[in-house]
Specification:
Dihydrofolate Reductase, subunit A; ten-stranded mixed β-sheet; 8 helices; RibDG_C
Length: about 260
């Protein structure tokens, strides 16, 4: 029988201090000495399972979730997102705490030597992205575009002209194995995937999800919003709870790992 950790009161943790490696940061560090990409997925959902309100996830957010969201980006080598989510959420470049990223790098916990933010890596088989969007114009680091040999060459050329690194990761599709290979070749092993549901579903189907950070927002939403993961076929994947944090407003922040059990 798996031992379930007691919930930790969010306000009891050290969460502030610009540039510091706080108690909360320590709870989310990646495994040490990674030699291949570790794919962490981060999502928020309402109590009734809605992943969005009016097609946007931001309305579900609460202060504790925003704090953890920032920490996850500070720790990551790369932020992976599907093209649909990048368009819907109007993605720009990652904004991170440069001092914290330098300190994390110094301690071998991620971050970056110069404090630079992680690049955004967009998965798009068709390369159907607007080169004038914030993804390309509002960023400190050019994005990585993981696309295919079959994608329109003019689209790929226009994206490359923005300074983005356009990578033909597959022939006609970009699989989970392609994503892992491309990121691993670039030494980007601390992977943070921010969705969307289709990409998450593809990663589940490929047994490629190492970790899920799931926030439960204290809201009932109703409506027609979808789930955090969708795919043609089900693949039940056992996960072990690593921790659960409870904030005063009812927000619950959980961290789950695949194929591990509590000691």
């Amino acid at each position: 029988m798996q031992r379930v950790p007691d919930a930790i009161q969010f306000t009891a943790l050290t969460t502030d201090g610009a540039g510091e490696i706080t108690d909360l940061v320590q709870l989310y560090t990646y495994p040490a000495a990674l030699t291949a990409p570790w794919i962490r997925v981060n999502f928020i959902a309402s109590l009734d399972g809605a992943v969005t309100v009016d097609d946007r996830s931001g309305a579900l957010g609460r202060p504790a979730d925003a704090t953890v969201f920032a920490i996850l980006r500070d720790l990551a080598d790369v932020v992976v997102v599907g093209a649909g989510t990048a368009r819907t959420e109007n993605y720009g470049g990652a904004r991170t705490d440069s001092r914290r990223r330098m300190r994390l790098h110094h301690h071998g916990l991620g971050g970056a030597r110069d404090g630079a933010p992680p690049p955004i890596a967009v998965v798009t088989a068709s390369a159907a992205l607007d080169p004038a969007s914030r993804l390309f114009t509002d960023t400190q680091r050019p994005p990585l575009i993981l696309t295919t040999a079959a994608a329109d060459p003019d689209r790929k050329r226009l994206l490359a002209e923005t300074g983005a690194e356009v990578i033909e990761a597959g022939q006609s599709t970009v699989t989970a194995a392609d994503i892992r290979r491309v990121l691993g070749e670039r030494g980007l092993v601390r992977v943070l995937c921010e969705g969307g549901p289709s990409l998450f579903g593809e990663l589940i189907a490929a047994n490629a999800v190492d970790e899920l950070c799931l926030t439960l927002s204290p809201l009932l939403v109703g409506g027609t919003a979808g789930r955090i993961a969708v795919s043609p076929n089900a693949l039940p994947t056992p996960m072990s709870l690593r921790h659960a944090l409870l904030d005063d407003d009812g927000t619950v922040l959980t961290r789950w790992e695949r194929g591990r059990t509590q000691s």
